[in-house]
Amino acid sequence: MRLRGAFRLSAIFLSVAWVSGPLAAEQQPTAPASVADSISSEVGRVFKDRRAAVVKVRAKDNFGIRFGSGFFADPAGTIYTHAGIVLKADEVSVIHDGRELPAKVLVSDPRSGIALLKIEANSPFIPVGDSSELAVASPVVMIGYPEDMESCPSFGFVAGFDRDYLGQYFSTTHIRANLPVQRGQGGAPVLNMRGEAVGILVGRLEGGTGCHILPIRAAEKVRLEFVRFGELRPGWVGVQVEDASLEQGGSTARIEVVDESTPAAQAGLKAGDVVVRIASTPIRSSEDVLDGSYFLTAGDPTEIEIVRDGKNVTLQVKPTVHPLSPAREMQVVAPDATPPLSFQ
User: Fold this and answer.
1) What pLDDT does residue 171 have?
2) How far is residue 305's CA from residue 276's CA, in Å, rounded to a whole number?
């Protein structure tokens, strides 16, 4: 974010002396824009550049009409929104550029909390950014439709990165932001200051003064899987992991149980192995398994690195869909409530 000299204010105030006479106006430097003006300018620029790619989502069922927000993921009319808006809806439409267009629900995924819609239109879209670049205090902008009002921006900062909330684990780490949220903004894009989508609004914190955001990488996993297969294929390995008292290879994530006839057993994983990496995700504790396993795709071989008998071993594992249901949300409870964390 470019604040164009706003942070030089204190230095300027210290160095500029009172002057008198005809040279005073010439010697006084032009006052720089205030921090507030700079932020306003940057947020306004992002809003102007991206508002055309943000839509209002309308869903109707037996209980009435629900409104939410969404945004175009590509130029062919594919839209990201919140899964709860379109859940069990009889009719779904999208209000864009002054028109209301019928929308088809492609995917409604309870695991990630998002849905994919499709309308027949050429569409502006928001490019994808890198959510891994975000850190605490990174500035973010959300564009959404509160209630029945026009779209508007909200500005805030990343406050943290959470794996659980109110005693329940997310399917993968979520971004927590100090962004004001109103009804109707679920499914809205959250952008960095380059105007790139870094996440999707999926949860409002108490009082609406903050929110939880699904990282865009996690959302793209859903979209690209649908593009490849026409369905979602979350990968399942079939082991349970707990935290050991001693770390090995920088990790305490020890495999407690390996179910028979699972991809894990077929690949040679054993109880007592300490997991240090799942694909490209480093594992340091059992909670890291949530992020590593979220990005597994059934049928796509992946590497799992372990420590066994003091030696690092890398095994090729081919995840499958979960035997109970390929679309089941694999909810993980908090550790004090207790079964150990499992590979999804």
Assistant:
1) 95
2) 6
Identity at 5, one-letter amino acid code: G
The pLDDT value recorded for residue 33 is: 64
Residue owning tokens 């990496």: 277
Residue segments in the chain with a per-residue pLDDT below the cut of 50: 1-26, 30-31, 326-344
**For residue 265, what pLDDT is reported?**
96
Interatomic CA distance for residues 331 and 87, integer angstroms:
18
Closest CA to 79 of 104, 116, 129: 116
Residue that the structure tokens 């870094």 belong to: 198
Helix (H) or strand (E) holding 96: strand 91-96
- Distance CA(234)–CA(16), nearest Å, equals 63
Distance CA 264, CA 177 (A): 37
Length of the chain: 344
What does the DSSP assignment read for 249-280? TTEEEEEEEE-TTSHHHHHT--TT-EEEEETT
- Which is nearest to 107 in space by CA: 125, 86, 138? 86
Apex CA 178: angle with CA 176 and CA 183, to 5°? 90
Separation in Å, CA 280 to CA 51, 268, 276, 289, 295: 34, 20, 10, 12, 10
H-helix or E-strand containing 236?
Answer: none
pLDDT at 259: 86
Q: Count CA within 13 A, CB hemisphere, residue 100.
A: 7
